[in-house]
Amino acid sequence: MTTKVEQAQVIRGLEGVYVSTTELSRVDGERGRLFYRGYAIEDLAEQGSFEETAYLLWHGHLPTATELERFSQQLAQSRRLPARLYCVLYDLPRETTPVTAMRTMVSALAAWEPNADATTPEAELYHARRLTATFTTMTAALHRIRQGEEPVLPRDDLSHAANFLYMFHGREPSAAAARAMDTFLVLYADHGFNASTFTARVTASTMSDMYSSVTAALGALKGPLHGGAMEAAMRQFLEIGAPDNVDAWFERALKEKRRIMGIGHRVYKTWDPRARILREQARILASESDEPQWFELAERLAERTLQHPYFQERRLYPNVDYYGGLVAYYLGFPPEYYTLLFAVSRIVGWTAHVMEQHADNRLIRPRALYTGAEELAYTPLQAR
Ligand code: SDX
Question: Which pLDDT band holds residue 8 (cuts at 50, 70, 90)?
Fold first, then answer.
């Protein structure tokens, strides 16, 4: 919605406004397509890997086998935490939500990292690897400590996705679980100028450091209209309880004008392509789990929205979080970790955007159209 005042145009939420260029990802909202540096996410998810995707976003081209091998080793060797960070994790109050804990941990990590403030390309490539690798270690350690268990140390011989599940659950994942985790991490890695990425870029545009940009991005991601939706979508399914309850719940939600979590998108006006891929991963995991009813419930609810005129008229379709929450549930993650799971993948995009911003920086400083009072006479205190 725009307000025309004095020839200035105010475009709320910057909806549809192009504020910069990027070579990292292209989101085609009308056709429901997503590309990372020109490659379709379907190809990266089905034939590539998280490591390959991170390399592509940071370096601008797909790696050769030798480059990928070396990169994967470097990432694996960046997984260990300074011992002091485990003390911070133990000291955090139990009720601190996982994404809030990570906001603290990123700042703590920076305090122990040499050259954390350095913004040269080489330094930022190191920081991007370090943050991406340790996001999994810190997330897993937080969970184990909250379970009253010892944190599991990272292994260098497992892929990023498999090692994350290994550290989180304390046992090696099945091939299907590692595959689903890898696909999840590929699909959430980058997505244009979404709110958290734009927050990272605004922070980076002041020539602030990567850790500060990532901390700011985590704060933006925490909101229920952005990264909080994956958890909200899964909790919605748990609230419905069983596939047979969907119809009555849906009618009530419509009447109460409730937002159906995981449905709708600012850019996609058709299926979110990531939702299509995660839907198939959720189908596979559901078929191998003893709780297949959640997938069936989600399918039935999606069907109701797709068939309803209210959603059709507004072009509201399932987005990444609708099935992302289901995949996370079947991978054994508690719902309170879902926003943090989003960040465990999106850290690659955030760091790539910080590097892109610093490579050709322009301070991001838009205008606000003042509509407040003007030219008021000052009334002295004793006269008020
Ligand atoms: C992510 O930007 C990104 O790329 C984000 C992301 C990423 O990878 O970074 O893709 C990840 O954040 C995905 C979105 C996750 N959020 C949710 O699933 C929350 C539920 N969805 C909505 O809140 C909403 O669809 C948004 C926030 C996602 C987008 O909303 P917009 O573009 O601001 O649209 P809007 O709020 O102005 O809604 C337009 C209309 C309104 O109805 P009317 O005023 O026309 O009567 O559509 C309705 C809204 O009430 N509407 C919904 C709805 N979403 C929009 N009605 C019911 N259920 C919904 N989910």
Answer: confident
